[in-house]
Amino acid sequence: MNTPTFKAAAAVGIETVAVIGLGYIGLPTAAILAGNGVKVIGVDVSATTVDAVNRGEVPFVEPDLGINVAGAVAQGFLHAQKETPQADAYIVAVPTPFLADKTADLSYIEDAARAIAPQLRGGELVILESTSPPQTTARMAQVILDARPDLSLDGSEGRPAVLFAHCPERVLPGRVMIELVTNDRIVGGLNPGAATAATALYKVFCLGEILETDATTAELSKLVENAYRDVNIAFANELSIVSKNVGVDVWELIELANHHPRVNILQPGPGVGGHCIAVDPWFIVAADPENARLIRAAREVNDSKPQYVVDDILAPVADQDSPTIAALGLAFKPNIDDMRESPAVDIVHKLATQRPDAKILVVTPHSNVLPKKLEGFPNVTSVTANDAIAAADVVALLVDHDKFRKIDTASLAGKHVVDTRGFWRTDVAGQAS
Fold first, then answer.
1. The pTM is what?
2. What is the pLDDT of residues 72-84, one digit of tens each?
3. Cβ atoms of residues 10 and 81 within 8 Å
4. CATH topology (fold) of 4-208
């Protein structure tokens, strides 16, 4: 395929791209690039993931990704392997979880950098897509240059330059294949020419506006976007607790308040999950702990919400031996299988820990396996929604999957219902918590 956009990338010497990390962001990015005629080599530490991609299969749920991967592999533009190859450009899309002290674990980025370093000849573009604290791109570059003192950032002393940039992903799980193409992108260059080269590469598939800045500003922009959302969700979650304590339906309250032309309150829930909103604000707090007070407070509000939900679930069965609890949903958002930092998983874990005598029946319509955090609990079992509700003393709706809309609310009669999403508030108003 020889599209004008691909020519733009090739004009700055980018014909082969290695995507390091074939997860929820890396694999869609690899598939989009390959679908536009770029030779892409995907790299992942998991042999299972590598084998699945090379069969044209996708190891997780994301609409439209499977057909893109299958097509790219069949046409020979996408191949996966465990070893980092030589390439004209590298896109690093590895995890950046936080540690126990809420600071970022950058070991995956550093490992990727060390694997890239031996393959460089000079003139390559290395892009960090992983959501990162400020100055992580510079840290990645330093790891590479420490391993390769014959290379440089500026071509000084006759040492060839390597270009480094940060381009944070800004997509919503469940809409990744659409938003990769349509969303605006921020490209932050670390050294001269990096932003221009990265822009040329993203123009291969991105129809949105590409905004160039420096690497640190690009890193912080992603964190700020998610911290903004986290603060607003925290307001809604705190409001839900206050509303219940004064006997008010929080969803009706928010609906009424949002009729004000300058008010747009978000919806409350059981907490905040996903690798972005539940994690990114902590990176800002770590960068300036003395002054990021509102951001920290919002995180604490949202992190405390799962225990509030647990208390609500357990209250009506406090004096009951071996109660049965139906937990509907484990993903961090509806209609996907992604359970990273999911408050629903946290809730079930707390239930299993605090009431080991309880039988907890979980329903995961988009996944066939329980997360590792719930392994080893004999009182946690995965079943169908109908079976869970039929056996339950308490029904807790934790994720608003569309498939749960098919549940006959008559089956909830006589059960204590904890509806964290306002799903059934009109149908079971007399029972719902």
1. 0.86
2. 999 999 999 999 9
3. no
4. Rossmann fold (3.40.50)
